[in-house]
UniProtKB/TrEMBL annotation:
SUPFAM superfamilies: PLP-dependent transferases. The keyword Iron does not apply. One of its GO terms (biological process) is polysaccharide biosynthetic process. GO terms for molecular function: pyridoxal phosphate binding; transaminase activity. It comes from Virgisporangium aliadipatigenens. Belongs to the DegT/DnrJ/EryC1 family. Keywords: Pyridoxal phosphate. The modification N6-(pyridoxal phosphate)lysine is found at K178. It comes from the Bacteria. Its cofactor is pyridoxal 5'-phosphate. This is 8-amino-3,8-dideoxy-alpha-D-manno-octulosonate transaminase. The active site is at K178. It holds the Pfam family DegT_DnrJ_EryC1.
Length: 383
């Protein structure tokens, strides 16, 4: 949570007092308003407000027609939702290596493509763009669909275009730890009317009885709707986005200047530095021992120094894939055939990179004195 205050509280209270908490009630308009405002902000014609980023990815894959027998290539670094979403639609997540940018390695993506591959799910992790030019070139060559996981990247750009709007569809998250938040929530965006209609149906099995009219026949869906309370909060949050991003980028520059003036460091490379959301700084080291020294010296109050293979973002932590537990029932488990399982060592290159990479996550409460203290510790350790 970056910026949150009385306006959000008032918006939530207004909806609660109206008793119009469900988006299909006669006077409920918050979810509709948010979808329109988000689509306008991102420059796409269609947005679907969902209950979470995971729900947005599941709805997106369903809308793209991904299902049983299909494979979806995902990177070895990102939140576990990137593998949960393919499993939820009956597809197999095939994990490919990352490179030192911590995003999908297009060369390994190419190696992981098989006749079963249907889609690619690049993750714009920590608000930094994947190598979309290279990924889209591979996808076009093999006639693959692209769903961008932009859950951590609202407001980020790649070559001037909003992340999440460049592939066939994109997913965003608005949970407690994201740039914009309502505690929980998500959104699916797409330039395609057909994908939008199918995504809306996938996220809402009761859309058959809603005020929405679709050209396509209704199909079964789930219940991933956003509440009016969450949408009201997000309508306020969306108005704060530019200010949040500006403050994050300014703070990133302050922290970078402090740590990089204290030690000779190699920043994690980025595919579009100007388009980064600025939520983290990353540094890659020649070996894990040096990375551990840096992490110990850089960790402080209001600045969290952590390794890339922490917090459930590393393939090694995704035991459901290693152990073939991809569903609640054997017939609903896409990983029931052992040929589709990947053991914990399947992405050794990614694990090596993550063991040598330290990320700095900061919040708006950090003071100049705290930043200076980290500078001094790093200068003492590496000077």
């Amino acid at each position: 949570m970056y910026r949150f205050g009385k306006e959000e509280s008032d918006a939530a209270a207004r909806v609660l007092e109206s008793r119009q908490l469900f988006r299909y009630l006669p006077d409920a308009r918050e979810a509709d308003t948010f979808e329109g405002a988000l689509a306008t902000r991102l420059g796409v014609p269609h947005a679907v407000a969902t209950s979470s980023g995971t729900a947005a990815m599941i709805s997106g894959l369903a809308a793209l027609g991904v299902g049983p027998g299909d494979e979806v290539v995902v990177p070895a670094y990102g939140f576990v939702a990137s593998v949960l979403a393919p499993l939820a639609v009956g597809a197999v997540p095939v994990v490919c290596d990352i490179d030192e940018s911590l995003t999908m390695d297009p060369a390994d993506l190419r190696r992981k493509i098989t006749p079963r591959t249907r889609a690619v799910l690049p993750v714009h992790v920590h608000g930094n763009a994947s190598d979309l030019d290279a990924i889209l070139a591979v996808a076009r060559e093999h006639d693959l669909l692209v769903l961008e996981d932009a859950c951590q990247a609202i407001g980020g750009t790649y070559r001037g275009r909003a992340l999440g709007t460049i592939g066939d569809a994109g997913a965003f998250s608005f949970n407690q730890h994201k740039i914009l938040t309502a505690g929980e929530g998500g959104a699916l965006v797409t330039p395609s009317t057909d994908v939008y209609e199918r995504g809306f149906m996938a996220h809402d099995g009761s859309a058959n009885f809603s005020r929405h009219a679709f050209a396509q026949p209704m199909r079964a869906g789930l219940a991933f709707r956003m509440t009016e309370v969450a949408a009201a909060v997000l309508n306020v949050q969306l108005g704060r986005l530019d200010g949040i991003l500006a403050d994050l980028r300014a703070l990133r520059s302050r922290v970078a200047e402090a740590v990089e003036s204290a030690a000779v460091l190699t920043p994690v490379p980025q595919h579009d530095p100007d388009g980064s959301c600025g939520t983290n700084l990353g540094y890659v080291f020649a070996d894990a021992v040096t990375a551990q020294r840096f992490q110990a010296a850089a960790d402080g109050r209001n600045i969290d120094a952590f390794f890339g293979n922490e917090y459930g973002h590393s393939f090694r932590e995704w035991t459901i894939v290693h152990e073939g537990r991809g569903g609640h029932h054997p017939l609903a488990n896409p990983l029931r055939d052992t040929e589709w399982r990947q053991d914990a060592d399947a992405c050794a290159r990614s694990e090596d990179i993550l063991s040598r990479t330290v990320l700095l996550r900061y919040n708006f409460d950090v003071t100049d004195a705290e930043i200076d203290k980290i500078h001094q510790r790093l200068a003492k350790e590496f000077g």
